[in-house]
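Quick one: structure tokens for this chain, please?
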Amino acid sequence: MSGRVLVTGASGFIARHVVAELRGAGYRVRGTARRDVDGVDELARADLGADAGWAEAVDGCDYVMHVASPFPVGVPSSEDELVRPAVDGTLRVLRAAKEAGVRRVVVTSSVAAIASGHRDTVVRTESDWSDLERSAAYAKSKTLAERAAWDFAQESGLELVVVNPGMVLGPLLSSGVSTSVDVVRRLLVREVPGSPKMGFPVVDVRDVAIGHRLAMESSIAAGQRYVLAGDFVWMREIAAVLAEAFGPRGYRVPTGVMPTWLLRIVSRFDPSVRQALDFVGRTEFVSADKARGELGWTMRPVRDTIVDTAERLIELGLAPNPSKKKVAV
């Protein structure tokens, strides 16, 4: 394949893998970022919070992958801190893409735009939308940004595809730890005494990147959204995999369940834990059958994803092996 693809937020966890996947498939990649990024063929300076730079960023591009989106470390003081940048930033990218005449735009949404706010065990598909009345700020931002994208595409005639990944794990391509990967790091280095009663539909970042490319290339994908996620996995199951794989190497992974009352106490001092309270006791079941059937997309085993995530954290020095710590004499 050939052509030039713009990838927004090219320094992000998912975006770096999307860039690598596209370049491996023969595309030229232009990335937007606030700082220099390895791996892209060209770099464009454009910020989702401003109009400046987007016309130049999309100029000459055949496709656009809009991957960038704000993801909070903690609970925002106002929902608008997430919702407005997500919606406005998405529309900035889509307007620029339409004016430049790109062939297709692929937007990275989330299962948070499909399964959030529901209090049942129904398996959700691409025909479902999150219940905004009972969703946290992040889910609202992803849902409203995606709805705005579909509205714009319908009004303008822009060719749009949306992918909806689950909780994205997998090996980092830089030392910046994403919010989702930090869950694995915290368990691996025993920063938490146990696993909160929460879980997510997990997916490997490498498979997410492949899904982006397939959504861009497929002749039948225009106007469609695709769930990219596997089975629901409890955090205690992630901990069990880590304990089995890395316990023999000196890692004392906590495999017990962390009481919710203790999680609430910890959340007073840790903003990222405060955000996690929204997920306690909640299950989200989604189906990726559509992506498998229409795109030919597949997922590697979740255990491989968890182990590869941890191995990369260790390689980067982000999860030091306790058995190799130097002892002062």
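The radius of gyration is 20 Å.
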